[in-house]
Protein backbone atom coordinates (compact mmCIF):
# COMPACT_ATOMS: atom_id res chain seq x y z
CA UNK A 1 0.00 0.00 0.00
CA UNK A 2 1.28 3.46 -0.89
CA UNK A 3 1.73 5.83 2.01
CA UNK A 4 0.39 9.32 1.40
CA UNK A 5 2.26 12.12 3.12
CA UNK A 6 0.07 14.99 4.18
CA UNK A 7 1.45 18.38 5.08
CA UNK A 8 -0.93 20.58 7.01
CA UNK A 9 -0.94 24.26 6.19
CA UNK A 10 -0.33 26.54 9.18
CA UNK A 11 -3.33 28.75 9.97
CA UNK A 12 -1.36 31.99 9.51
CA UNK A 13 -0.54 30.94 5.93
CA UNK A 14 -3.96 29.45 5.12
CA UNK A 15 -5.77 32.65 6.09
CA UNK A 16 -3.91 34.53 3.32
CA UNK A 17 -4.32 31.86 0.65
CA UNK A 18 -6.39 32.55 -2.46
CA UNK A 19 -8.37 29.35 -1.92
CA UNK A 20 -9.46 27.28 1.06
CA UNK A 21 -9.98 23.54 1.40
CA UNK A 22 -13.74 23.71 0.84
CA UNK A 23 -13.41 25.83 -2.31
CA UNK A 24 -10.65 23.55 -3.60
CA UNK A 25 -12.89 20.50 -3.15
CA UNK A 26 -15.76 22.30 -4.91
CA UNK A 27 -13.49 23.27 -7.81
CA UNK A 28 -12.05 19.77 -8.05
CA UNK A 29 -15.52 18.19 -8.15
CA UNK A 30 -16.61 20.61 -10.90
CA UNK A 31 -13.43 19.92 -12.89
CA UNK A 32 -14.30 16.22 -12.93
CA UNK A 33 -18.09 16.51 -13.37
CA UNK A 34 -18.16 19.40 -15.84
CA UNK A 35 -14.67 20.25 -17.13
CA UNK A 36 -16.03 22.65 -19.74
CA UNK A 37 -17.75 24.81 -17.09
CA UNK A 38 -14.72 24.58 -14.80
CA UNK A 39 -12.28 25.75 -17.48
CA UNK A 40 -14.67 28.40 -18.83
CA UNK A 41 -14.60 29.93 -15.35
CA UNK A 42 -10.79 29.66 -15.08
CA UNK A 43 -10.45 31.27 -18.52
CA UNK A 44 -11.91 34.47 -17.05
CA UNK A 45 -8.80 34.95 -14.90
CA UNK A 46 -6.79 36.36 -17.80
CA UNK A 47 -7.49 39.31 -20.09
CA UNK A 48 -8.45 38.37 -23.65
CA UNK A 49 -7.87 40.49 -26.75
CA UNK A 50 -10.47 38.33 -28.50
CA UNK A 51 -12.62 36.45 -25.99
CA UNK A 52 -12.97 32.73 -26.57
CA UNK A 53 -16.27 31.08 -27.43
CA UNK A 54 -14.91 27.53 -27.55
CA UNK A 55 -13.53 26.30 -24.22
CA UNK A 56 -12.20 22.96 -25.41
CA UNK A 57 -12.03 21.00 -28.62
CA UNK A 58 -10.81 17.46 -28.09
CA UNK A 59 -10.60 14.24 -30.04
CA UNK A 60 -9.26 10.97 -28.70
CA UNK A 61 -9.79 8.98 -31.88
CA UNK A 62 -6.98 6.46 -32.51
CA UNK A 63 -4.35 8.11 -34.68
CA UNK A 64 -6.00 11.50 -34.30
CA UNK A 65 -5.60 12.72 -30.74
CA UNK A 66 -6.16 16.47 -30.52
CA UNK A 67 -6.58 18.70 -27.49
CA UNK A 68 -7.20 22.41 -27.99
CA UNK A 69 -8.11 24.91 -25.28
CA UNK A 70 -9.72 28.33 -25.89
CA UNK A 71 -8.76 27.92 -29.56
CA UNK A 72 -10.71 30.86 -30.95
CA UNK A 73 -9.55 33.30 -28.27
CA UNK A 74 -6.53 35.54 -28.49
CA UNK A 75 -4.48 36.88 -25.62
CA UNK A 76 -1.22 38.71 -25.02
CA UNK A 77 1.17 37.14 -22.54
CA UNK A 78 2.90 40.45 -21.79
CA UNK A 79 -0.43 42.08 -20.96
CA UNK A 80 -1.40 39.25 -18.62
CA UNK A 81 1.95 38.67 -16.91
CA UNK A 82 3.32 42.19 -16.80
CA UNK A 83 1.34 45.17 -18.09
CA UNK A 84 -1.77 44.70 -15.96
CA UNK A 85 0.33 44.72 -12.79
CA UNK A 86 2.09 48.02 -13.43
CA UNK A 87 -0.55 50.35 -12.00
CA UNK A 88 -0.62 48.81 -8.51
CA UNK A 89 2.64 46.84 -8.33
CA UNK A 90 5.21 48.76 -10.41
CA UNK A 91 7.78 48.87 -7.62
CA UNK A 92 7.14 45.38 -6.27
CA UNK A 93 9.42 42.50 -7.18
CA UNK A 94 8.24 40.59 -10.25
CA UNK A 95 11.19 38.22 -10.61
CA UNK A 96 13.86 37.01 -8.23
CA UNK A 97 16.82 35.65 -10.13
CA UNK A 98 19.15 33.28 -8.28
CA UNK A 99 22.54 32.43 -9.75
CA UNK A 100 24.53 29.27 -9.25
CA UNK A 101 26.33 30.86 -6.32
CA UNK A 102 24.26 31.55 -3.17
CA UNK A 103 25.74 35.07 -3.16
CA UNK A 104 24.45 35.79 -6.65
CA UNK A 105 20.89 37.10 -6.92
CA UNK A 106 18.93 39.95 -8.40
CA UNK A 107 15.41 41.27 -7.82
CA UNK A 108 13.62 42.85 -10.76
CA UNK A 109 10.55 45.02 -10.24
CA UNK A 110 7.58 45.10 -12.57
CA UNK A 111 8.70 48.59 -13.68
CA UNK A 112 12.25 47.41 -14.47
CA UNK A 113 10.95 44.32 -16.23
CA UNK A 114 8.55 46.43 -18.29
CA UNK A 115 11.40 48.72 -19.35
CA UNK A 116 13.53 45.70 -20.32
CA UNK A 117 10.66 44.11 -22.25
CA UNK A 118 9.96 47.37 -24.12
CA UNK A 119 13.64 47.78 -24.93
CA UNK A 120 13.85 44.22 -26.22
CA UNK A 121 10.62 44.64 -28.21
CA UNK A 122 12.17 47.65 -29.94
CA UNK A 123 15.24 45.58 -30.81
CA UNK A 124 12.97 42.94 -32.36
CA UNK A 125 11.09 45.62 -34.33
CA UNK A 126 14.39 46.92 -35.72
CA UNK A 127 15.22 43.36 -36.77
CA UNK A 128 11.96 43.15 -38.72
CA UNK A 129 9.73 41.23 -36.30
CA UNK A 130 6.09 42.23 -36.57
CA UNK A 131 3.11 42.10 -34.23
CA UNK A 132 1.35 38.77 -33.80
CA UNK A 133 4.58 36.86 -34.30
CA UNK A 134 5.98 34.66 -31.60
CA UNK A 135 9.47 35.06 -30.26
CA UNK A 136 11.22 33.86 -27.16
CA UNK A 137 14.19 34.93 -25.13
CA UNK A 138 15.74 33.24 -22.12
CA UNK A 139 16.85 35.88 -19.63
CA UNK A 140 19.50 33.62 -18.13
CA UNK A 141 22.49 35.60 -16.96
CA UNK A 142 20.74 37.99 -14.55
CA UNK A 143 22.48 41.09 -15.82
Q: How would you explain this protein's 3D organization?
A:
It comes from Proteus mirabilis. Residues 24-81 form the Acetyl-coenzyme A synthetase N-terminal domain. By secondary structure, this protein is an alpha+beta fold. 3% of the residues are buried. The mean pLDDT is 90. It has six helices and six strands. Helix content is 36%, strand content 20%. It is extended and about 55 Å long. A two-stranded antiparallel ribbon has the order 1-4. Strands 2-3 form a two-stranded antiparallel ribbon. It has two domains: 11-73, no CATH class; 77-126, no CATH class.
List descriptors.
single chain; 143 residues; alpha+beta; two-stranded antiparallel ribbon; 6 helices; 6 strands; 36% helix; extended; ANL_N_sf; ACAS_N; AMP-dep_synth/lig_dom; acetylation
Task: Give me the count of strands.
Answer: 6
Radius of gyration, taken over Cα atoms and rounded to an integer in Å = 20 Å
List the domain count as a whole number.
2
Mean pLDDT: 90
Quaternary structure: single chain
Q: Describe the largest sheet.
A: 2 strands, antiparallel
